[in-house]
Amino acid sequence: MQTTRRPLPPRFSCRRLLSSDRGDLAELQRSCFAPTAQPTGAELEDDLHLGEIWGVFEGRALAGAVTLLPLDAACRPCLAAAELVPLAGLPEPGRASLVCDLALAPGAEDPAALTAALLAAAADRALGAGRDGGLLAAVPVKNAPPLGPFFDAGYLLTALRPMLRLCACFIFALAPQGETIYNRGDPAALRCPFSETRLLGRRLEEGWRGTALSADGEELLLTR
Question: What pTM does this model have?
Answer without folding.
Answer: 0.90
